[in-house]
Fold this sequence. Notes:
By secondary structure, the protein is of the alpha+beta class.
Amino acid sequence: MVTMPEMGFLLEFEVMAFLVIVVFLFMRMYRAYRCAHYEVPADDIRKGHRWYMEDIFPEQTYCNISLRKIKHGAKCFSCEICVDDHLMKEANLKIPCKPVSLEGEITYHHWVQGNLPLYSKCYVCTQDCGVQPHICDVRCAWCKRTAHENCKPDNEACDFGEFKTAIVPPDCVQLKWVGFKGRKHLVVEKARKPNIPNWSPVIIVANQQSGNNEGEIILRQFKGTLNSAQVIDLHDIPPENGIEWCHLLPDVKFRLVVCGGDGTVGWVLNVIEKLKLKNPPHVCILPLGTGNDLSRVLGWGEGYTTGDDVHVDQIFRQMNEAKPVCLDRWKVEIKNLKRVMLPKLKYKKISLRGGKVPMQVDGEPWEQSDPADITVTFQSKANMLARM
Ligand SMILES: [Zn+2]
Ligand SMILES: [Zn+2]
Ligand SMILES: [Zn+2]
């Protein structure tokens, strides 16, 4: 027989169990929803600049707040202002960063004072600028034009300079807040096509830990040139979120730059295939670290390693000149494998029907030397073929 207090306890227990199940189911549904809905994340620039610390600044670097010469301190990788270590908060309040999104249909030059590159010329009067031994003159964070303080026009629309076809102008981007209280973040809600001929914007996907941390340097450099919403760090979010740009602007041909090795490129190509896009992006490779067979075969080079300077401008120029090629991808499944003694093969050829295009097998690129043959250059792959 159950007494009254015991009944109350059972009821409470049932209610609690019911609530736990409801919360659990809700979280499962929310996670499933999040996995099926990808969104392009955007920085909240009202929080201030995107800082990184520099141990040694180049000679003649001046603080944008104290205006004094500094040897080390913090630099914003988006608008490139430099400040003394202890002046970051003040800079966040006083100097606006390069915007991700803007209201209206025009983006004006975003002038940043001082620290101009060597041999800068004023685009208005064509004379040298930035040469005084103190913080002086300005540079646009978008088009990179430099000008004398007195020459710079205040309300001139920025045309985004040499790499205008790669940049998503902030006036074409509309943001919205998503997520629950405490975990709210900004994402791109809508985007429109700017009036730029041959516009083919670039999306960068890189893992900040790729190579020997070259990934981090590259992500920073691309954010300095592009709209920061175009740069996706695979360390924090999957490539699907970056490729979501292709859904936001389905009629635009995007260029997706994958920074990393064969594994990363294979992963991103699988994602593009899985998403079944109406207008899939062209894929460019920026090889990092070792294991860059696909990049080498396609002509993007052997790979950047520690100490190599990555010249983002040069990469954009190479992308503008690159010709798209098709890539065959296929997966080999091996079943009922018998253990066999293998000869020490250096290479092996197999015959295939098909055109003369580079090939990729389950993430690994194979060099093709003849329309009907594949040359396998590595022992591991030779072994795999010999077993077949
Ligand atoms: Zn900034
Ligand atoms: Zn400009
Ligand atoms: Zn001038």
